[in-house]
Design goal:
By secondary structure, this protein is an alpha/beta fold. It has helices spanning 10-18, 32-42, 63-70, 85-99; strands spanning 2-5, 23-26, 54-57, 77-79. It has a single domain (2-99), classed as 3-Layer(aba) Sandwich (Rossmann fold), CATH 3.40.50. Helix 1 (10-18) crosses helix 4 (85-99). 23% of the residues are buried. Helix 3 links the parallel strand 3 (54-57) and strand 4 (77-79). Strands 2-1-3-4 form a 4-stranded parallel β-sheet, with helices on both faces. It is built from 4 helices and 4 strands, in the order E-H-E-H-E-H-E-H.
C-alpha cells in the first residue's frame, strides 16, 4: 500500500495503481484522517502488513515521517520533490520494489 500526501496528483496515483500498489491519497498532508489511517496501517487493522506500506511525501524535509519517528513510530517512506508525475512514479516504483516487495 502507498500513502500519498500533499497536493492531489491523480496521474501519479493511477501510475502506482497500474504497477500493482493500492494507493491512498491525502490532502492536506497534516489532515487528522492521515494520522488515523497511518495508525490503522501500523496496527494492521486494514489487513495490510505493517511493514508493507510506504508514506510518500512531496516535501523536501520528510516532516510527516520525522514527526512519527519522533513519536516512536517507524514509517517507511520516501520524499519526492517536484518531479513530473511519470518521473516521480518511476522513482517511487523502483524504491517500493526494492524496499517493500
Amino acid at each position: 500500500m502507498v500513502v500519498l500526501c500533499g497536493r492531489p496528483r491523480p496521474e501519479l496515483g493511477e501510475r502506482l495503481a497500474r504497477a500493482g500498489f493500492a494507493v491512498v491519497s491525502f490532502d492536506p498532508p497534516g489532515a487528522p484522517s492521515l494520522e488515523v489511517a497511518l495508525d490503522a496501517l501500523g496496527r494492521g487493522m486494514l489487513e495490510v502488513d505493517a511493514d508493507s506500506y510506504a508514506l510518500i511525501e512531496p516535501h523536501d524535509d520528510g516532516s510527516i515521517a520525522l514527526a512519527r519517528a519522533a513519536a516512536g513510530v517507524r514509517v517507511p517512506g520516501l520524499v519526492v520533490r517536484d518531479l513530473p508525475d511519470e518521473l516521480a512514479a518511476a522513482a517511487i516504483v523502483q524504491w517500493l520494489a526494492k524496499h517493500l516487495v
